[in-house]
């Protein structure tokens, strides 16, 4: 079972570090994290297909956070940035993992196809706490829109996070934290 200690992870991920994680491990992420939601995933998949399976925007080895941040507030890049229900992106996650995305971050369970993709590609799904969007915004140091600006909150953004709290929802062996409880 998972350790009670938080594991500090630098982004982008070292695949060896991901391989040591277990479902349920509590982690703190620091470094670049990319936000993207439903409509952005549709566009990203179309670009992935058009490029013959090569990820655009430097997403190879990166992590995608399923979030739609609010505008700036209190001198921070966002007033709030909370996780979106991850299962809504299950249609895209396996293809993105196969193309090189190392991890995803959201809330809730994932499908068996996503768990299989994590196992096959050595990728991880992290769970962020729902209802803590204002707190999570305090962990964001900067934000830059990378693509799909016309999608507003669903645009692809690169955010830099510091000590962003998550736990391992699905590890590289396909073990799911929701099956452990």
TrEMBL record:
Sorted UniProt keywords: Lyase
UniProt superkingdom: Bacteria
Any one Pfam family match given in the protein's UniProt record, by short name: Fumerase_C
Family: Belongs to the class-I fumarase family.
Name of protein: Fumarate hydratase
Record bears the keyword Metal-binding: no
Fe-S hydro-lyase tartrate dehydratase beta-type catalytic domain ranges (all copies): 4-179
GO molecular function: hydro-lyase activity
SUPFAM superfamilies, per database record: FumA C-terminal domain-like (SSF117457)
């Amino acid at each position: 079972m998972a350790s009670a200690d938080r594991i500090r992870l630098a982004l982008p991920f070292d695949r060896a570090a991901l391989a040591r994680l277990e479902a349920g491990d509590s982690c703190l992420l620091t470094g670049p994290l990319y936000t993207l939601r439903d409509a952005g995933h549709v566009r990203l998949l179309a670009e992935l297909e058009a490029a013959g399976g090569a990820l655009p925007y430097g997403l190879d080895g990166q992590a995608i956070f399923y979030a739609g941040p609010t505008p700036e507030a209190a001198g921070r890049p966002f007033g709030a940035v909370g996780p979106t229900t991850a299962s809504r992106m299950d249609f895209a996650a396996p293809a993105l993992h196969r193309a090189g995305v190392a991890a995803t971050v959201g809330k809730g369970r994932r499908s068996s196809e996503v768990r299989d993709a994590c196992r096959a590609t050595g990728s991880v799904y992290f769970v962020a706490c729902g209802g803590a969007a204002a707190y999570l915004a305090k962990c964001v140091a900067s934000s830059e829109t990378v693509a799909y600006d016309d999608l507003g909150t669903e645009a692809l953004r690169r955010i830099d996070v510091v000590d962003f709290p998550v736990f391992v929802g699905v590890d590289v062996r396909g073990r799911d934290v929701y099956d452990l409880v």
